User: Fold these one by one.
Assistant:
Number 1:
Amino acid sequence: MSDRSQYWTRMLAAWLLALSATMGALFIGEVMGQMPCTLCWYQRIAMFPLVLILGVAAFRGDRGAWRYALPLSTIGLIIAGYHSLQLSGLIPSPIVPCSVSGPSCSGAGMLIMGFPIPYLSAVAFAGISLLLLPFVRKSP
């Protein structure tokens, strides 16, 4: 596989991952009517611009787009990882993001394929980051 086609394949896969996560978040919020908790909002703030950045980068063949996309996906991964660790009970929650009185992303109705939304968000951010990492090594 040529270097150009490998670049395009990786960037397209990262874009499709970001697009899927964004469409899922919009479906949950707008169609299902579920309000996201505070940490889910922060994850959305990191994910939504990735759709535009990665889409334009794939279309234009912009090899430097990782400079914009990788920091966003890393920040999103950190937030999603922290949120997932809180939900799993591995770290204490000084602020309860998914409370009984407010929006909850960990309730039975908020599981997708049997997993809480923050777990899926962490997987999406990790996948995007892993797809972008090879571009860091190839940059001058």
Note: The chain has a mean pLDDT of 85.
Number 2:
Amino acid sequence: MPFDQNSAKKAGKKSKRGPARKEGPSIKEKMELLYEKVLDDLLVNQDKLTKTERVKLFVTLSNYIFPKTKSVRDKFTLDKLKEDKDDWHAIDPTK
């Protein structure tokens, strides 16, 4: 028996899996709604926070808003590190 549109319908009706379920909101979507609600509440009630709580909140949120900076070494520092490494090898050539 060839597999065509009609045979597919029949096979689908015999299936034990049941009808397709519509999925509700994902965990990510629920978390986004929760975050929005919490942030809105913080904005409205920020006067009720202590100074310490405000600073902690500011620092915590800053980690998510501003990009992290990478440490940068200038040419002088790199040259100095290379010299120190060469000096160390002169003292102990096994390293």
Note: The longest helix spans residues 27-44.
Number 3:
Amino acid sequence: MPRLLTGNRLETGDVLWWAGSDWSLHLRDAVAVDDEGEALIARLLPQERINDLVLIDVDATPDGWRPRSTRERVRAVGPSVRPDFALPSLPVEAI
């Protein structure tokens, strides 16, 4: 099962996804880290740019990544209290 690395930008709280060489606001840009995930967290953690680094389980779908947990699907969409702020990475209906 694929795994993605996600976290939050320290300055703004934005949800970020590891895109291979840097971070993206969009789930569609994320790359699977699988077995390299723990080493990647160990390398990025001391930089203190991104907090709450976590590996999440996802499913690959024809439309892109789909987080397995409801919590991560909500994080991918954007604030649940303001659907007008939703990100185009994952449709609100996907929650």
Note: Residues 91-95 have pLDDT under 50 and may be disordered.
Number 4:
Amino acid sequence: MSSTSDATPRVVAAAPSASAIISHMGAADILVGVTAHCSVDRPVIGGWLTPDYARLETLDPDIICTADALQASIRDELRDRGYTVCHLEPNTLDGVINSFETLAEAIGRPTVGSTLATQTREQLNTVRHRVASNSTVTVYAEEWADPPMAAGNWVPEAIAAAGGHHPFCDPGERSREVTQTEVEKAAPDHVVLHHCGHGTHTNAEAFHERGWDIDASVHVLDDDLLNQPSPALFEGIEILAERLHSES
């Protein structure tokens, strides 16, 4: 394996969020491998949870980036194989922003990471200020449809930053299954569908066809804009603020 002392490390993004962060920092040139779910045009090492270790070995990376508790066993396997791994596992908005600096440090771009973190905090504060005078609306954010899963992790905070209230998960908690009765009792003003892996192809009409007794506006949001702990999340918060308060 190459030495991490090289000025330009060879980096494999084994998580889509990692390739998105690195690309946003203008450092996509250091990526030598990505997953099938990444948007960067590089050799593919497999899926997010199904890396091809033989393929990975041929890329001779200095650093491999993993993310989320679901990749913890992959992280451990990679370390057992002798790789240097930068593992990110944020579950709050602050954690996501801090992870930008952690990843930047790992790839030798600490100044760029600090700048991105500062800009992101300013972006978040701008959205909060913009919606501060609006009435808070109740939101049901659904990460998965069958069974219905209310979004957790940083999503409750993202909704709060956008001027909403998501009473189904506390910030930092994992997403969880909810019942029709539970959602109806909360009487959401807005439903946000951001189903994992579906992009913008979720069908809002399918939600109406469930027959749930909910009088709410239904929005479909690209899942990367809420589910991915990358700069895309903060773009998603801006879009969410516009959707939740379009009539304010």
Note: The domain at 11-123 is CATH 3.40.50.1980 (Rossmann fold).
